[in-house]
Please model this.
Amino acid sequence: MERDKRIKVYIITGFLGAGKTTILNSLLQQFTGSRNVVIENEVGKVNIDASLIDAKIDQLYELTSGCICCSLDNDLLEVLGNILGQEQRPDHVFIETTGIADTGNIIGMFHIPDVQRHYKLECTVCVVDAENIFERLQQAPEAGKQVAAADVIIVNKIQQLPVPQLVYLSQQLEQMNPLAFITTSEKGSISLKDLQFREKPLPAKERTAPLKQPHKINTVLFESPIAFDLNMFVFVLDFYCNAYPEQLYRIKGYIRVCNSKEKMLVQSTGRYLHIVSAGEWEDESPSSTLVFIGRELKSATIQRILAPAQKEKI
Model:
């Protein structure tokens, strides 16, 4: 099998003060021997975080004109294009977002065909401050979007947190984003193996009552054996992802499509919807399973949204 020569991308996100730059330094120190480029985003004329990066890197890009999630077609795309023009392309690109970034839109950009041809998004990491994550979730919707979009959630600064509170926090994060792997860090030190994981299976329907939540972010699981009309499915989800970005944060799962043996992988973060073939159903009984993560989502609403795209009425 031919080796994938695309540049590997890691997105490091998390709310203000969570410890993103410390985590980034810890990771960079484990990538010695490879060419690494860092893209730092900070809102303001001076990027303080860039001066704190002490690990060896080959190039640092500082974007201080605004949040890259709000100007995807400009600053970030321009930087990615400049990287491709280098005589020696890097092995890895690390993007540390501003603390108020809507990560879903940044992730979505790496599903654009022209970008995907040269870059492979390996992992999206969300760093949360163990001591104040619940306050952040109540104060700023961006914090919830960052948690929802993550592949890996790092609970940082746990040294002062009693074990029962840490267990409770981990359970809450698992409930908010059952698609993510959750790990911990005391002072921003993290092992590279925590970012090297197999895809986590989609969650099954809960048999026990969910924990009471100190926030409004929840998960809805949709399951149905009824096939979808793919064009109508795309139309419906694309509309709702763009119409309700403040309520619908992330979608992931597989769907059964009319007149096809293919299993289709569905992923959505922010306003971007990405659907590709994931092979055939093989021995499995074809049945659609989708996980929706957002703010105060209701199962009945999700059923109503998807019903027009199904071949048969529910």
In short: Residues 83 and 89 are 7 Å apart (CA to CA). The radius of gyration is 20 Å. The mean pLDDT is 84.
